[in-house]
Specification:
Blueprint lengths: L11 E7 L4 H4 L3 H18 L4 E4 L16 E4 L8 H4 L2 E4 L2 E6 L2 H4 L9 H8 L3 E8 L6 E2 L4 E5 H4 L10 H12 L3 E5 L16 E5 L2 E5 L8 H13 L9 E5 L21 E2 L3 E6 L4 H12 L4 E6 L1 H5 L9 E4 L7
Parallel strand pairs: 1-2, 2-3, 5-6, 8-9, 11-12, 14-15
Antiparallel strand pairs: 1-16, 4-5, 7-8, 10-11, 13-14
């Protein structure tokens, strides 16, 4: 049986991220995104407890981060945008990784270099990589490290990625690639999520058999979607046949873009580092409550709230812009 990557809460040898720099991807929101990234990366260097590799144009840290030379390791590999959760490799350990085909989230955002970035990063980091001809993004997959994968139908079964594929065929790929023995399928993603519904905006493992998702609140534009997510999770079992324990994060509610349209805001798009959990914040009263809920699941880690509205306006959040490198592989099942 193929080896499943460790869960994100397992020890990391480091983390990959990328500096937002391309106006074709960010437009007038570039400067605001850079300001939030700078704050995030500074917090990361102080509190994450793990090394950080940062993709930068020409492998040079931006002027705003030059004082962090020695703490951030710049990488010169060309990249299209910052969403390394989707375009980077999925690491089994520092020397072994897998990757899937990438087509710009169903052809919506085809930026230069992104389709070959996983391979290029693996070469740069001297990591062996096994490539699967199956179109999928890392943000579409959540796993527990023990054989269970959670994903969504609108991503993996979408004809804009894998036309004509059946659920059983997709499960076969996840078995070969990730060692999945049980796949839990969720339905629709958040409104206006250009990924078509990544699971990291819906549900995340925070412990063995324990998942957090968002509480459905009356009047929230995603009320029905979030209620269905929680219902499906409560009906599901892990690869070992155990029921999931479900905890609820608050719903951010209506977070709007400059045109007044709802953004796919979620507190589940957090990143679990060795010593901290970085949680997106939107300047709302629910920000603190989300951190309180997560602190109960990560008593040994500092919960760090990161302003993320500008990053979200670009298409994702903190989990989307990071990719962990585990220190070890799981035993072969």
């Amino acid at each position: 049986m193929p080896v499943m990557p460790p869960p994100e809460r397992a020890p990391h040898a480091g983390c990959l991220s990328a500096w937002p720099t391309h106006t074709y991807a960010w437009g007038k929101g570039l400067r605001a995104a850079q300001d939030e990234f700078e704050f995030f990366l500074r917090c990361f260097c102080r509190q994450a407890g793990e090394p950080l590799w940062l993709l930068c144009p020409l492998g040079r840290l931006p002027e705003a981060l030059r004082d962090l030379t020695g703490e951030i390791r710049p990488i010169a590999v060309p990249y299209g945008d910052v969403w390394l959760r989707d375009t980077g490799p999925v690491f089994l350990d520092p020397r072994n990784a897998i990757s899937f085909a990438f087509n710009g989230w169903g052809g919506k955002y085809n930026y230069p270099h992104d389709a070959v970035l996983a391979r290029a990063l693996a070469k740069e980091l001297d990591t062996a990589i096994r490539e699967f001809p199956f179109t999928c993004e890392g943000g579409a997959l959540e796993w527990d490290g023990a054989g269970t994968v959670v994903t969504t139908e609108p991503c993996l079964l979408n004809r804009n990625r894998n036309p004509g594929i059946s659920r059983s065929e997709a499960e076969g790929v996840l078995s070969q690639a990730l060692g999945a023995r049980r796949v839990i399928w969720l339905g629709y993603g958040l409104i206006n999520d250009h990924t078509d519904g990544h699971v990291d905006n819906l549900a995340r493992f925070v412990g063995p058999d324990t998942v957090v998702c968002t509480q459905a609140v009356r009047g929230d534009p995603n009320e029905r979607i979030l209620a269905e997510v929680a219902a499906r999770l409560r009906e599901s079992r892990t690869a070992a046949g155990r029921p999931l324990s479900i905890d609820l994060l608050p719903a951010p509610g209506m977070v709007l873009d400059d045109e007044g349209q709802p953004l796919p805001a979620s507190y589940t798009n957090f990143y679990i580092a060795n010593d901290a959990v970085f949680v997106p914040a939107y300047g709302l009263g629910s920000d603190d409550r989300a951190c309180e809920v997560l602190s109960s699941h990560f008593p040994g880690r500092e919960i760090v709230s990161i302003p993320s509205r500008a990053i979200l306006a670009g298409g994702g959040s903190l989990h989307c812009v990071t990719q962990q490198i585990p220190t070890w592989s799981q035993p072969t099942h």
